């Protein structure tokens, strides 16, 4: 399968995404995204995005910490399409996606994903923010995914909106984000450190997340696909 077809579909679906900014028909967007997810994302393969496992971005320089390579394919005001290539043991630290929906599909190797969602509707007697700025979050995912795994989808309020990627082996994750990060519209990327699990209840596990400065760097380059967005 070629990447061209899913990109064409994204061009179509982004119209629905724009419309869905009105809350009354938000479910239409969900349907459109889900259709893309089912039809295309789960069947994408590494070669569909022009990569192969022998590329140097999957080999860590012994002198450095293993560094992630960011490949930017395409972006419109409502969607962006990119991939992250990891040498073994490379990590993208815990970060958020404010107001965004993100599809993540592993195309190569094995990846540990740990994700959380902010606790926003808790028992009114419970403290969800600490004086030091820490916020309570509920663990969503703590598992290893590989190229046979279904696409992971996170949403603004659930699905694991804050996540950390750790490469168990050299791996690739394809990300489709909508809308893209845009600090001037309130969608900046923040990084967090998580505490040990503070509570294990009948309904899940919780941790305190503290915002931390970004301390990691990625290699990056654009890869243009000849398609009208
Ligand atoms: Fe992310």
From TrEMBL:
<dbReference type="InterPro" id="IPR014710">
    <property type="entry name" value="RmlC-like_jellyroll"/>
</dbReference>
<dbReference type="InterPro" id="IPR012864">
    <property type="entry name" value="PCO/ADO"/>
</dbReference>
<keyword id="KW-0479">Metal-binding</keyword>
<dbReference type="GO" id="GO:0070483">
    <property type="term" value="P:detection of hypoxia"/>
</dbReference>
<dbReference type="Pfam" id="PF07847">
    <property type="entry name" value="PCO_ADO"/>
</dbReference>
<protein>
    <recommendedName>
        <fullName>cysteine dioxygenase</fullName>
        <ecNumber>1.13.11.20</ecNumber>
    </recommendedName>
</protein>
<keyword id="KW-0560">Oxidoreductase</keyword>
<keyword id="KW-0408">Iron</keyword>
<dbReference type="InterPro" id="IPR011051">
    <property type="entry name" value="RmlC_Cupin_sf"/>
</dbReference>
<dbReference type="GO" id="GO:0046872">
    <property type="term" value="F:metal ion binding"/>
</dbReference>
<comment type="similarity">
    <text>Belongs to the cysteine dioxygenase family.</text>
</comment>
<dbReference type="GO" id="GO:0017172">
    <property type="term" value="F:cysteine dioxygenase activity"/>
</dbReference>
């Amino acid at each position: 399968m070629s990447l061209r077809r899913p990109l064409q579909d994204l061009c179509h679906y982004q119209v629905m995404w724009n419309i869905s900014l009105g809350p009354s028909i938000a479910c239409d967007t969900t349907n459109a995204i889900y259709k893309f997810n089912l039809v295309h994302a789960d069947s994408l393969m590494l070669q569909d995005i022009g990569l192969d496992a022998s590329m140097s971005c999957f080999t860590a320089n012994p002198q450095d910490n293993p560094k992630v390579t960011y490949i930017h394919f395409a972006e419109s005001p409502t969607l962006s399409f990119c991939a992250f290539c990891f040498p073994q043991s490379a990590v993208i630290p815990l970060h958020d996606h404010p107001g965004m929906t993100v599809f993540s599909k592993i195309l190569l190797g094995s990846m540990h994903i740990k994700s959380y969602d902010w606790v926003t509707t808790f028992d009114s007697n419970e403290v969800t923010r600490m004086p030091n700025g820490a916020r309570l979050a509920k663990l969503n995912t703590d598992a290893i995914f590989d190229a046979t795994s279904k696409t992971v989808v996170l949403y603004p309020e659930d699905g694991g909106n804050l996540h950390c990627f750790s490469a168990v082996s050299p791996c690739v994750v394809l990300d489709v984000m909508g809308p893209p990060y845009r600090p001037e519209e309130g969608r900046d990327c923040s990084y967090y450190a998580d505490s040990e699990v503070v509570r294990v209840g009948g309904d899940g596990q919780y941790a305190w997340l503290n915002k931390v400065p970004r301390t990691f760097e990625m290699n990056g380059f654009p890869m243009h696909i000849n398609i009208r967005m």
